[in-house]
Amino acid sequence: MLVRFLSSETGEILMFAEAARPLLQAIGKETTARGAFTQDEMAGAAQALREAVQRADAPPQDDEFDESGKKKEPVVALGQRAWPLIDMLERSSRGGPKANIVWEASAAF
Hints:
The protein is an alpha+beta fold and 109 residues long. It has one domain. It is built from three helices and four strands, in the order ββαβααβ. The protein has a four-stranded antiparallel sheet with strand order 2-1-4-3. The longest helix has 18 residues, at 39-56.
């Protein structure tokens, strides 16, 4: 399922629900089919997400191989998934009193 983030100040972001869920949970938002960030919430949400990334992301490991000798698929870190939303939150927070961000999905996730 896709989650669509729309901002009055930036372009839209599309994420799979599996990627959006931990980001919204790190901020303290419920993963409902529709939700919003108000102007007052945006800067704090961006900071909370940055802190979650710092706690979760380990330095990348080069040339990791599995037990059969095959190279493992690279892991997409939380920071890589979080950056577009952090950017949207920070840019929208500077957008004035009517700035907003909403998300929508086909169902709660």
